[in-house]
Structure formats: structure tokens, C-alpha cells
Design a protein that fits this description.
The protein has 225 residues and is α/β, with parallel strands linked by helices. The protein is built from 8 helices and 9 strands. The strands form 2 sheets. It has a 5-stranded parallel sheet with strand order 6-7-8-3-9. The protein has a 4-stranded antiparallel sheet with strand order 2-1-4-5, with helices on one face. It is globular, with a radius of gyration of 18 Å. Bound molecules: adenosine-5'-triphosphate. Adenosine-5'-triphosphate binds next to strand 1 and helix 1.
Length: 225
């Protein structure tokens, strides 16, 4: 369960604190898959950054399961993020000098032997249909295939929270739709909570729940500052 209570975030712009986000009360059940929609600048990415612990709220509470994210120190938030959050970005952030397989295995548990890590990663490459391409460099595969590898990297540790910020923003529609459907399917099979920011209403419609950030963010509704 994710719980947000009276969460506020503002940014300093030209010496002034501009309120960006105010979420009075919000809950997400474990395993829910939610698409976030909203105009540019409405606070969608800011919300993901707060949930991943990259940013701290000015005030309010953010609970992920039994962890009070708002109370953690920076190093505790780094640990929380490494263990519990899988992030998928619009740009895939794969290391260009490493193969897809090396990119994935780089972040796998140090407690796993090389043999175990190779077995687990092979299963994931098969699951996303990339077995043939796994030994190639990112530049030697398509953008859709790069994003599938980035998806494995985000999901392989079975994080309690998967955050995807415009994950299909740089893909053509057909590739985007197939990537989104794979992401939804895997998160459902693994029981992972998925929050995806997208501008695409058709892709958002494939999610069991859609949230318009304007409905969540009291500042956008003009009822608060
Ligand atoms: N680090 C920052 N410093 C100052 N202002 C910021 C910072 N991060 C975000 N903002 C401002 O906060 C507002 C919300 O930004 P955010 O990136 O959350 O919007 P968004 O809904 O994700 O937009 P988009 O759909 O364009 O990505 C914007 O006005 C942005 O300029």
C-alpha cells in the first residue's frame, strides 16, 4: 500500500517558492497498475520523484508499505530506491559499451553467483522476446528492444514499486503499444505496483486505473496554494 497525506512540494523559481504539488490524501493498493495523465508541467514527474525518494516533500507523509519515505535520510532513501523501486525512463539509460545482458546483470544482486545471475537473466530475456539480441550492444538493436532491456533491468529485482516516466515516449505507436502491454502483463503476473506517466490516452486506457493529476493535485484544481 502507498499512502500520501498532505504532501506538498514547491520549487524555487526566480527567488520565489512556487507551489507545484499538494496531495491531500491518496492511496494505492499493492499490485495496482495506474496510468497518470495530465498536461505538461502539472507535477507528474515530481510525484514520481517523491515516490522514489529522489526528492523530499516540503511537508506531509509518504508511506510505501511500512516505510515512511518522508522521514528517511538521504542514504536510507538511496538504499530504499535500490532495493524497492524499479524506474523506467523515456530514454533508456543503457550503458552503450555493454551488451544488453551485461547491462541487466550489472544491477543484479551481488549475493547471486555468476551462474545464477546468468540463468535468471536468460529467463527474463526469453520472457520479453530478446534472447537472440541479448549479446548485442544497445546501438545494435532497435529502440523498442532497448526499452525491453531497460524494462528487464527495472523489473528483475522484483521491486515493490515500478515507476515509468513516459516509457514509450520515444517509440512509434505499434512498438509503444506492445511494450506497454508487456509491462502491464509482467507487473500483473509478478504482483508489482506500477505507476506510469503517459501523454497517450489510448495507451492509458489499457491500464486498469487512470488518474488525472489535476484531480489528485489540489493546486491544479485551484483549491489550494
Ligand atoms: N528541480 C526543479 N526546480 C524548479 N522547478 C522545477 C523543478 N522540477 C520541476 N519543476 C517545475 O515544476 C513543475 C512541474 O514539473 P513536472 O516535471 O513534475 O511536470 P510534468 O507534469 O511531469 O510535465 P511534463 O509532462 O512536461 O514532463 C514545472 O513547472 C517545472 O518547471
Amino acid at each position: 500500500m502507498i499512502t500520501l497525506k498532505e504532501v506538498r512540494k514547491s520549487f524555487k523559481q526566480n527567488g520565489e517558492h512556487i507551489p507545484i504539488l499538494h496531495i491531500e490524501q491518496w492511496q494505492v493498493k499493492r499490485g495496482e497498475r495506474i496510468a497518470f495523465l495530465g498536461p505538461s508541467g502539472s507535477g507528474k514527474s515530481t510525484l514520481l520523484h517523491l515516490l522514489s525518494g529522489v526528492m523530499q516533500p516540503d511537508s506531509g507523509e509518504i508511506w510505501i508499505e511500512d516505510q515512511p519515505i518522508h522521514r528517511l535520510s538521504e542514504s536510507q532513501r538511496d538504499q530504499y530506491r535500490a532495493k524497492s523501486v524499479g524506474y523506467i525512463f523515456q530514454e533508456f539509460h543503457l550503458i552503450s559499451s555493454l551488451t544488453l545482458k551485461q547491462n541487466v546483470e550489472l544491477i543484479m544482486q551481488p549475493s547471486m553467483s555468476n551462474k545464477e545471475a546468468a540463468e535468471v537473466s536468460a529467463q527474463w530475456f526469453e520472457r520479453v522476446g530478446l534472447t537472440t539480441q541479448q549479446h548485442r550492444l544497445p546501438s545494435q538493436v532497435s529502440r523498442g528492444q532497448q526499452q525491453r532491456a531497460a524494462m528487464i533491468r527495472a523489473l528483475i529485482g522484483k521491486p515493490s514499486l515500478v515507476l515509468a516516466d513516459e516509457p514509450t515516449g520515444s517509440l512509434d505507436y505499434e512498438t509503444a503499444a506492445s511494450m506497454m502491454s508487456l509491462l502491464l502483463q509482467i507487473c500483473e503476473e509478478e504482483g508489482l505496483t506500477l505507476l506510469t506517466v503517459t501523454h497517450d490516452v489510448h495507451l492509458a486506457a489499457s491500464y486498469p486505473r487512470q488518474v488525472h493529476i489535476e484531480d489528485l493535485n489540489a493546486i491544479r484544481r485551484g483549491v489550494t496554494a
